[in-house]
């Protein structure tokens, strides 16, 4: 029988344990921040040059990181630093009105250990903040924490708050779950490589939608979606295709060739499959079943 640890009586911590807990929590919070800062130094100082021709090749071989992942981590570390610095500025009196150099302040350094302050814990939470100015990043993060009930907000909550600040007038979200849409990249680097791809709306939020593509789910702002205005029956057919592709992608027996076909089908610039493509999908399903 599984123990219900939540019902166990609470035991107080010693002063040393409290200190250890705070230090360990700070390390968890700053994990992606430290990674991004380290990657930026490796790149800027070209410390990869003895073994690799390019920084991209080095990151792929050494860490298994794609070029996009590296850029996300580096950008995320900058946003994290802005949030920490901006929060410290707002919590300390007598700082410069411009907010510059306040992180060098001795009192600000002490505030970094304030256990009541909520900081990001992963890069995805700060990714929507990257296009904003530093002061806006702090404002959006603090508001997102409030909307999350004083806890670390999800990337979806942060995205919604960003949309509220960027778009002063509220645009009603008319999308519906199950609707077939097209991805519009526009000025969003997170959507690079997905422009024109079809997707299925799986959740509707105030200023964004969570959609399912061939390679997973993504939360995007309303301006990055365009409905195909399909009839309900047509949307249902595309939902079935999407579900089949998702099951295959999660199948441990899916070979590299099959994954390449899924990628091709999922990145089509049209929301339907030809007869040949339908046969390819069925063939991959059959192969996975036989190997299973």
Low-confidence stretches: 1-9, 91-116
Beta strand % = 5-15%
**N-to-C terminal Cα separation, in Å?**
32 Å
Total of DSSP H or I helical runs spanning 4+ residues: 11
| Estimated structural class | alpha+beta
Total strand count, please? 5
Helix share of residues?
A: 40-55%
Shape: globular
Q: For the residues shown, what is the average pLDDT?
A: 82
Overall number of structural domains? 2
The biggest sheet amounts to: 5 strands, antiparallel
> What's the SSE pattern?
HHHHHHHHEEEEEHHH
Please tell me about this protein's structure.
- The chain has 292 residues and is an alpha+beta fold.
- The chain has 2 domains: 16-166, no CATH class; 170-292, SH3 type barrels.
- It has 11 helices and 5 strands; from the N terminus they run ααααααααβββββααα.
- The protein has helices at 15-29, 31-44, 55-63, 67-91, 106-111, 123-126, 134-147, 155-166, 232-249, 256-266, 275-291, and strands spanning 180-183, 198-204, 208-213, 216-221, 225-227.
- Helix 2 (31-44) crosses helix 4, helix 7 packs across helix 8 and helix 10 (256-266) runs antiparallel to helix 11.
- The protein is globular, with a radius of gyration of 23 Å.
Protein topology:
Blueprint: H1 15-29, H2 31-44, H3 55-63, H4 67-91, H5 106-111, H6 123-126, H7 134-147, H8 155-166, E1 180-183, E2 198-204, E3 208-213, E4 216-221, E5 225-227, H9 232-249, H10 256-266, H11 275-291
Antiparallel strand pairs: 1-2, 1-5, 2-3, 3-4
Helix pairs in contact: 2-4, 4-7, 7-8, 10-11
């Amino acid at each position: 029988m599984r123990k219900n640890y939540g019902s166990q009586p609470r035991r107080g911590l010693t002063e040393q344990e409290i200190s250890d807990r705070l230090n360990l929590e700070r390390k968890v919070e700053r994990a992606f921040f430290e990674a991004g800062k380290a990657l930026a130094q490796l790149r800027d100082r070209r410390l990869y040059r003895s073994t690799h021709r390019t920084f991209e090749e080095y990151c792929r071989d050494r860490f298994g990181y794609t070029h996009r992942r590296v850029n996300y981590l580096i950008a995320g570390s900058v946003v994290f630093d802005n949030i920490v610095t901006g929060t410290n500025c707002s919590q300390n009196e007598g700082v410069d009105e411009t907010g510059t150099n306040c992180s060098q302040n001795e009192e600000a350094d002490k505030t970094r250990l304030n256990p009541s302050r909520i900081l990001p814990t992963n890069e995805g939470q700060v990714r929507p903040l990257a296009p904003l100015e530093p002061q806006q990043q702090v404002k959006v993060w603090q508001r997102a924490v409030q909307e999350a009930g004083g806890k670390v907000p999800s990337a979806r909550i942060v995205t919604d708050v960003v949309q509220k600040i960027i778009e002063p007038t509220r645009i009603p979200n008319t999308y519906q779950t199950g609707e077939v849409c097209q991805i519009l990249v526009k000025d969003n680097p997170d959507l690079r490589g997905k422009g024109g791809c079809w997707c299925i709306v799986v959740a509707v939020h105030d200023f964004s939608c969570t959609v399912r593509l061939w390679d997973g789910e993504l939360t995007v702002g309303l301006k990055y979606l365009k409905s195909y205005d399909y009839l309900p029956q047509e949307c249902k057919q595309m939902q079935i295709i999407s579900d089949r592709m998702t099951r295959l992608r999660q199948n441990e027996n899916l070979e590299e060739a099959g994954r390449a076909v899924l990628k091709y089908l999922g990145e089509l610039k049209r929301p339907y499959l030809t007869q040949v493509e339908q046969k390819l999908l069925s063939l991959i399903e059959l192969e996975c079943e036989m190997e299973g």
